[in-house]
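Need tokens for this chain, all 314 residues.
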Amino acid sequence: MLGLPEEGMSYSVSKHNVDIGILCDWIEASVLFDDNELSKSDVIDILVENEVYASQGFASEVVDIAWAVLRQRLIFPGADLQFKITGHRITRVNDWETFPAYAFCLILSCLSYLYPQSARALGYDFTGQGSLFERLAFASLSKSFPNWTVKRVGWAPDNPLKLKEAVGSILSDLNEVANGDIHLHVTEYANELGLDILAFCSFSDNHASFPVIMMQCASGKNWEEKRHTPDFTVWRKIVNFNSQPLKAFAIPYAFTNADEFRAKATKVDGLFMDRYRLIIPTAGRALQNLDNELRDDLLAWITPRVRALPRADV
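Here are the structure tokens for all 314 residues:
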């Protein structure tokens, strides 16, 4: 299995000092990227051998909690990767390459939370991963809203469009008019002001006042600091919205329960898409039919990073 995470694994004697989210991602990533199967006893042994837990009995308690989370997480990806989870074992039938959207999100969690120190050896590639994540979010949102127009408007190496160039198209698409303060915010240096993807469902007239989604995509560990973006306080100075758009925020990470998801979503104040909403954009249907270019680019980015993940000495 993969090596012990570098963070979130503090010594536990009579109180659990392990981050459940990191524990779950570690087990999930180990099954996806390294082992065909993994048992509870395998995980317990590693935790005790690495002195994360003083006893197997106490370690089994936290592993039971993780197993319950994974049962819920792996329901939908399991349909396409063929995960099988029982009371004591998780088994994967297909390789991770069969579901690159899922693998990409999980490898980002490995790099950000499980192995941030080891990730340095690969060289950080925030620009590359950000661009790929935007493309993945674009594909997911297009599946979630098949009758909507979905556009990437944020600057990226593969989409080098400054905001000053994009704002005219945004106004035209939304049948809106510019605000008088637009020149204060849309300068030659502005890239996107937190707006990466624009989605809307217009009518066959020239009127505004139809559903609009404005999404920020955050693939890095600092995503919590960006939840207020796109900042509508600023965007209302650019566009004189006739009706309020819906803010949206996408991340490649996952949560352990509904309360944690709800708490983190509060500051988004809009549509919040985590790992599993992204890879399962419509009920029970995984995001697998990617265009060939995106699929190839994801596989090329993921493959060397999977090979470089630390492995446990077992």
